[in-house]
């Protein structure tokens, strides 16, 4: 199975990277863009076919290591693996 | 007093820390590798600055799972002193020994310069040679020193007097222009509730001799080591 995990800064926490990129986009004429937020995308493969078990493991890994619950939120999706 | 300076792959202020303790203050100090796990013969642990594990994922996020950190947690649990500087501070917040988190500097720039910090709590074992409000000139060198904690957490820090240092002007005034990284309430260093784990972004071990610009770091080491 394949997991795609998105880690983003919690709402309300200032994202200076996003703000800078937002400004750069405006300089390029993308004036209708706003609220740019930058996060992380983590992909990984999991052995086994049990989706529930995999989801549990991903949650656990996100809470322990992949995201810092003080400042970050995470979401994930699981896909059937072709290999 | 015997001090262990923990060395992670990517630590780069470990030698400065050892030099400060051993050669400037003539204390018994030695390196301990992150895979070692016996801290019984030590009276204090120093987690030095650097880029443990390349700061991959988040600064300190990988180092906190090294075998030594389990022992550091037990060591701290027994009430013994732990000092985390810069990356050491980041590791302490990641592993939960200190509350809050250290994020990217607000201006996104790596800050490497001498700054001033004001002593907010002079009654900890790390600050007892200082006077309340005393200003120290100490260098910083970090890209992720922007301290953040939620409102409840911040209130607790104030209620328990856990904020030990704040960034300030040379005269000790608080203002955004003297805050090098955007830290919440200008926080530069905090201590745990029990008062035996201190984390700070500025590097006292690099301010031990006037030849290098300041010896104000000595106050902190002399507080703990004497």
Question: What is the assigned CATH homologous superfamily of chain A?
Answer: Phosphoribosylformylglycinamidine synthase subunit PurS
Which sheet architecture does the biggest sheet of chain A show?
A: 3 strands, antiparallel
Overall 3D shape of chain A:
elongated
Protein chain pair with the most extensive contact, residues per chain: A-B, 10 and 20 residues
Strand order of the largest sheet of chain A: 2-1-3
Structural class based on helices, strands and sheet pairing of chain B: alpha/beta
Total number of strands of chain A:
3
What does this structure look like?
The complex is a heterodimer of chains A (83) and B (226). Chain A has one domain: 2-Layer Sandwich (Mth169, Chain: A). Chain A has 2 helices and 3 strands, in the order βαβαβ. Chain A is elongated. The model of chain A has no long low-confidence stretch (mean pLDDT 94). Chain B is an alpha/beta fold and 226 residues long. Helices cover 21% and strands 26% of the residues of chain B. At the A-B interface, helix 1 of A face loops of B.
Task: Give a summary of the structure in a few sentences.
The complex is a heterodimer of chains A (83) and B (226). With 83 residues, chain A is an alpha+beta fold.
Give a quick set of tags describing it:
heterodimer; A: Mth169, Chain: A; three-stranded antiparallel β-sheet; B: 226 residues; Rossmann fold; 5 helices; 11 strands
């Amino acid at each position: 199975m394949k997991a795609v995990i998105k880690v983003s800064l919690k709402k309300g926490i200032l994202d200076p990277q996003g703000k800078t990129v937002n400004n750069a986009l405006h300089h390029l004429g993308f004036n209708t863009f706003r609220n740019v937020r930058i996060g992380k995308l983590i992909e990984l493969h999991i052995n086994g076919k049990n989706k529930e078990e995999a989801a549990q493991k991903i949650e656990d890994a996100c809470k322990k290591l992949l995201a810092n619950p003080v400042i970050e939120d995470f979401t994930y999706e699981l896909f059937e693996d072709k290999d | 007093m015997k001090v262990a300076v923990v060395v992670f792959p990517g630590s780069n202020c470990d030698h400065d820390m050892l030099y400060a303790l051993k050669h400037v203050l003539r204390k018994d100090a030695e390196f301990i590798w992150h895979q070692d796990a016996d801290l019984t013969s030590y009276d204090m642990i120093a987690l030095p600055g650097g880029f443990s594990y390349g700061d991959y994922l988040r600064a300190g996020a990988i180092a906190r799972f090294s075998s030594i950190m389990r022992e550091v947690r037990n060591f701290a649990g027994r009430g013994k002193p732990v000092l985390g500087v810069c990356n050491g501070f980041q590791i302490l917040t990641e592993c939960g020994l200190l509350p809050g988190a250290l994020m990217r500097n607000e201006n996104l720039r790596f800050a490497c310069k001498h700054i001033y910090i004001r002593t907010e709590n002079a009654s900890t074992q790390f600050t007892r040679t200082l006077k309340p409000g005393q200003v120290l000139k100490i260098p910083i060198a970090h890209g992720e020193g922007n301290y953040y904690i939620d409102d409840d957490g911040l209130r607790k820090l104030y209620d328990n007097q856990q904020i030990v240092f704040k960034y300030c002007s040379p005269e000790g005034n608080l203002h955004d222009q003297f805050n090098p990284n955007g830290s919440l309430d200008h926080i530069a260093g905090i201590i745990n509730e029990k008062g035996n784990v201190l984390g700070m972004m500025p590097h006292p071990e690099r301010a031990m001799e006037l030849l290098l610009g300041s010896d104000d770091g000595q106050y902190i080491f002399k507080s703990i080591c004497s």
